[in-house]
Amino acid sequence: MSNDQTVFIVDDDEGVRDGLSLLLETVGQPCELYECGGDFLDAYDDSKRGCLVLDIRMPRMTGLDLQKKLQEMGSTLPIIFITGHGDIPMAVEAMRRGALDFIRKPFREHDLLERINEALGIDADAYRKACDREELAEKLSSLSDRELEVFDRVADGRMNKVIAADLGISERTVEVHRGQVMKKLGVRTLAQLVRIKIDMEQHAIS
Amino acid sequence: MSRTVASWEDGEPGPVREYALSGTPCAAVMSHGVQVVDCELARRYTLDRKSIGYGCESFVGSPIVDREGGKIGQICVFGAQPLHDPEMASALVSLAAVRVSAELEHRKQEAALLRSEAYSKAIVATAAEGIITLDARGRIETVNRAAEKMFGYEASELIGEDINVLMPGPYRSKHTGYIRDYVATGTGTICGAGREVPAQRKDGTEFPVYLAASEVILDGERCFAGIMRDISDQKMAEESRKAVERRFRAVFEQRHQLSGILSVEGRVLEANRKSREFGGAQGESVTGRFYWELPWWSHSPEMQRRMQEAIQSAAAGETVRFEATRPRADGQLATLDFSVRPIMEEDGEIEFLVTESHDITERRQAEEEARQHRARVAHVARLSTLGEMAAGIAHEINQPLTAISLFAQAGRRLVDSGKFERMDEVCHKLNEHALRASEVVERMQTMARQGESVKNVVDCNELIETAVKLAESEARIYDIQIDFERGADLAPVSVDGVQIQQVALNLLRNGMEAMIATDNEERSIAIRTRGSDNGQIEVSVSDRGCGVPQDYADKLFTPFSTTKTSGMGMGLSISQAIVRAHGGSIGFRNNDSGGTTFWFTLPAVERDKHHEQ
């Protein structure tokens, strides 16, 4: 469990909210309680990390509605749906839209806490990766245009000779640029360079 | 002073004299009867010049007496000479006095007779009754005005005719025979007590007369006098009274209801056949007995008491009606719709009491069967509704169970970590949510109950509250808001609470379904209670749904008609049956702002009665 992560609980049933809050308190997990999706959105701060425990069936705004709104806002908070009797079709829909999991009420603490932990782990992981990407983008931005051209071609696996011919520069110059790139990006091997390139393409970092 | 009526003096009629009687021999006559003074009158009586008999020598006087012996005057002779033969003189004067007495009496009688005859004539002439006299042979001698009018003849046409002309054909010969036999033998019943005989008018019409005949023997001959009254009106009145009586008897006796007529004290004057024979043929007469003491009610002292009370109230001018019981011929107790009401004379005085009982045993049984049937159908419908609501109800129970589970697990962790101080709160929460779950189960069990249909006096708002809570379990699923607007200060209702909740639940669920069928964003239902005029409580349910299609409105309350894809189409027809059985009505109207309002009414219980119960 994490102290810098918050479990956001949205459920219209006060008893369920209280129970969840007490249970999380006993395991030292901070949480915030919301009666409905609207209240949660009003208080939403995308800098807060954690996960969302969301009742699927609520008046006015359902859990599915809230999930959709958060996705539109670009939120990556992992969502664990809690469902009552007969909500399975909705739960399936929620999973299709990318929910982490759903747990049927009433739940075993083991299942619930495990899912919450998993969600917080995913969130932390995502956070870390996001941080890495930010760092990388900063490093990439320090490359000169020529160095960037060399980086692209090296990561694509071309030989220095080929790159030199391609860019109309000497092989020696290519080697100097390559050394600069490796230094600026903080990598020592070609393999690491290739991974950065793949990450860039996946997350469209430029 | 006395006065002479007639006098003879010195061979001539004398003048009328008035004189004082006292001191004269005349006074002695009036007091002592016949007086004779043969000589020396002046020596015996002191007579002055003015006195009668002054200077006379002798006197003879005798009193004149009437029939009763009273002295009404006297006859007396004063003589200038002494009397030679006083006895002879005395006898002569006495004889004259007796003769005068007799003559006066005779005249008095004659005057009386004349007067009486004049009276009789006047009476006969003006009498309302017809009076006809006959001679011994039956011939008419006199006919009075009334008889002329009665028979349509002039008196002159009848006098001398045989009395037979006034009788209808078949009686004529007989009558002549009667009179002849009577005259000859002195036997028969012509005279004496009056009787009704047939008579015939001049125009030939027959009519009944009441005749009183009497026989008079005049100069040795029998005569007959008949006094008669035309009784055709009376007879007709009597006939029509008898006819009315017969008709009354016929109707009264043949009635299928048990009817009776009682005196104001409650004694039986009449009891019709149905009421006499209801409990089987009972030999003993009921007439004259107190109604409540009849064997009809002997099965129950309570019934006897109520009968007596009812009759006393009726005698005080009230109409009383209640359900009584009475054994039938087969020994089973029948239920009677009994009433007793006073019948007033024109002056408002109570003349007699009328009792009436309808045997409503079969109707009661049919009603009871219908009621039980309705209760069974309602129960099945409730079970079916609960089935349809299962998802909502399960959700409703699952929520507190989830809370309980969470608190229990958290509690265990608190114990593990030694944080006992929070256990009190945890246990409190556990209990709270367990109770919450049991309330849902309780509501469901109540709806599923198949008990006897029992009416209780309850607050309508409390009933509706429960129905709203039941409906909310489904409303949450469909994201529908139910607003309950409680009417203030509602009179209580006497109802089978579960059945009324069923009706309210039905209407709420219909409203919800109507809204699910539309894409209306604002899904809310308003259920209202209010006291309406004429002592009714109205419950209305307004939705914002699709409304009732015009062509479907007529079929709305018909069983097995539905526009929905699920359900049997029994809801509204059962609701209607339930509401009607409670004495209320049910209906709907489409709202101006879209959607429909269904309403039903229930008769409110008067608050006073409520307290009595």
Descriptive account of the structure:
The complex is a heterodimer of chains A (206) and B (613). With 206 residues, chain A is of the alpha/beta class. Chain A is 58% helix and 12% strand. Chain A is built from 9 helices and 5 strands; from the N terminus they run βαβαβαβαβααααα. Chain A has helices spanning 14-26, 37-43, 63-72, 88-96, 109-141, 145-155, 160-167, 171-185, 190-203, and strands at residues 6-10, 31-34, 50-55, 79-83, 101-104. In chain A, α6 crosses α8 and α6 crosses α9. Chain B has 613 residues and is an alpha+beta fold. Chain B has 4 domains: 2-119, Beta-Lactamase, CATH 3.30.450.40; 127-234, Beta-Lactamase, CATH 3.30.450; 256-359, 2-Layer Sandwich (Beta-Lactamase), CATH 3.30.450; 371-609, Heat Shock Protein 90 (2-Layer Sandwich). Chain B is 42% helix and 24% strand. In chain B, the strands form 7 sheets. In chain B, strands 9-8-12-11-10 form a 5-stranded antiparallel sheet. In chain B, α11 (390-416) packs antiparallel against α12 (423-448) and α14 (497-516) runs antiparallel to α15. Chain B is elongated. The relative contact order of chain B is 0.04. Residues 609-613 of chain B have low confidence and may be disordered. The A-B interface holds A 13, 15-16, 18-20, 22-23, 25-27, 57, 59-60, 62, 84-86, 105-109 and B 391, 394-395, 398-407, 409-410, 413-414, 417, 419, 426, 429, 432-433, 436, 476-477, 479, 481.
What is the secondary structure topology, with strand pairs?
The complex is a heterodimer of chains A (206) and B (613).
Chain A: E1 6-10, H1 14-26, E2 31-34, H2 37-43, E3 50-55, H3 63-72, E4 79-83, H4 88-96, E5 101-104, H5 109-141, H6 145-155, H7 160-167, H8 171-185, H9 190-203
Chain B: E1 2-3, E2 8-9, E3 12-13, E4 18-19, H1 25-32, E5 35-37, H2 41-44, E6 58-65, E7 71-79, H3 86-126, E8 130-134, E9 140-143, H4 145-151, H5 155-158, H6 169-185, E10 195-200, E11 206-218, E12 221-230, H7 232-254, E13 258-262, E14 268-271, H8 273-277, H9 301-315, E15 320-327, E16 333-344, E17 350-359, H10 361-388, H11 390-416, H12 423-448, E18 456-458, H13 460-477, E19 481-485, E20 493-495, H14 497-516, E21 524-532, E22 536-542, H15 571-581, E23 586-590, E24 596-603, H16 607-612
Helix pairs in contact in B: 10-15, 11-12, 11-13, 13-14, 14-15
